[in-house]
Design a protein that fits this description.
369 residues; alpha/beta; TIM Barrel; 8-stranded parallel β-sheet; two-stranded antiparallel sheet; 12% strand; binds flavin mononucleotide; binds 2-Ketohexanoic acid; FMN binding; FMN_HAD
């Protein structure tokens, strides 16, 4: 196994005491093109900031004099055991962060008993990542206008050991990340999107105006898909389906009625600016789903107390978008592992200080919104 530690000395990674320290290391390792792609949100980035602010506003109501000599953070998602309710959200193009790209992320997820969600737009083919993740991965689908191609990706994902299909529903078009428009974000020539297109096809995408990615995605993605079409998707794969990008009780009810699990997300503030934070959307969704489906959340999770608050309010697990990317940029597999470990340790301590020794003890009474 190659371990590239290109930019961050091992000491600096070891000395990182929180995810903000790792973010600083990750940012320092990236060039402007990659950094702006990872960091940006849509338009004025209100939702991007609000995802964090909402967690901070919520206050904890800790219980005391509980035996917390042994705190157990373990849980499961769709039957897959996890060391803690922390997974990795799908993000495109891990090759911008590190030469080991998605392979490093997958190995980290496996090593830490977590789960990685592999983006349709990975720089590494599904099969390679599947081998590294050893069953600890879900596949994220962007439905392409070419349905046969979409179907083929689902078959490949299942054959590679994916345990669920994460169907992203908040991005018929990409949101406008203005800094990417201004600086014409483009995928470097050495990286491809092998699940989706040949390098030649990518090279032909117009780069003279705006973000190459937004231009490319506009032609590729299916924008016609509705709730009625979910029956079609259901027929294409036996995997459990998770709808990623749900923000309202109304849509959560529809998701549950269609037999889907619910991933509460505003895409890290990259799609509809001023959309509600995922943490604030969570309670009405938990109420509406009423136990019919599993509920996950992403957006702004960087502290153990964030994990605790989301789980207390009914999320089965939370997922890391940028936090995982900063770890990957900082030090490849080691960096992602360190990110997961630090957050899990913070979560364990937060549980202990809340008087909760088991995941089942995390209830809404611990949180004042
Ligand atoms: C650089 C980047 C690329 C992303 N690519 C995808 C993607 O390919 N598919 C997808 O469903 N979501 C994608 N997302 C959204 C993430 O899955 C997730 O919803 C979001 O990053 C969570 O917010 P956080 O970054 O604050 O943790 C991407 C996010 C970022 C930052
Ligand atoms: C065409 C890849 C889209 C990736 C994505 O979802 C994002 O940049 O937020």
């Amino acid at each position: 196994m190659t371990l590239h530690n290109l930019n961050t000395p091992g000491d600096a990674l070891r000395d990182a005491v929180n995810l903000a320290d790792i973010e600083a290391l990750g940012r320092a390792a990236l060039d402007r093109n990659a950094l702006e792609y990872y960091a940006s949100g849509a338009n004025d980035e209100h939702t991007l900031r609000e995802n964090r602010a909402a967690f901070t506003r919520a206050r904890l109501r800790p219980r005391v004099l509980v035996d917390v000599s042994g705190v157990d953070t373990r849980t499961s998602v769709l039957g897959l055991p996890l060391s803690s309710p922390i997974g990795i959200a799908p993000s495109a193009f891990h090759g911008l962060a590190h030469p080991d790209a998605e392979r490093a992320t997958a190995r980290a997820a496996h090593a830490r008993d977590s789960v990685m969600t592999l983006s349709t737009f990975s720089n590494t083919p599904i099969e390679t990542v599947g081998a590294d993740a050893q069953g600890r991965f879900w596949f994220q689908l962007y439905l392409l206008r070419d349905r046969a191609h979409s179907r083929a990706m689902l078959d490949r994902a299942q054959a590679a050991g994916a345990r669920a299909l994460v169907f992203t529903v908040d991005a018929p078009y990409l949101g406008r990340r203005e800094v990417n428009e201004r600086h014409r974000f483009a995928l470097p020539a050495h990286l491809g999107a092998p699940n989706v297109a040949s390098r030649d096809a990518l090279a032909q995408v117009e780069t003279d105006s705006g973000s190459q990615l937004a231009n490319y995605f506009r032609d590729l993605a299916d924008k016609t898909f509705t709730w009625h079409d979910l029956a079609w998707l259901r027929e294409q794969t036996p995997l459990p389906i998770i709808l990623k990008g749900i923000l309202t009780a109304e849509d959560a009810v529809l998701a549950a009625e269609h037999g889907c699990h619910v991933w509460v997300s505003n895409h890290g503030g990259r799609q509809l600016d001023t959309a509600i934070s995922s943490f604030e959307a969570l309670p009405e969704i938990v109420d509406a789903v009423a136990g019919r489906s599993e509920i996950y959340l992403d957006g702004g999770v960087t502290r153990g107390t964030d994990v605790l608050k989301a789980v207390a309010l009914g999320a089965r697990a939370v997922f890391l978008g940028r936090a995982a990317l900063w770890g990957l940029a900082a030090a490849g597999q080691n960096g992602v592992e360190r990110t997961l470990t630090l957050l899990e340790d913070e979560f364990r301590l937060a549980m202990a200080l809340c008087g909760a020794a088991r995941i089942e003890h995390l209830t809404p009474a611990l949180v004042r919104l």
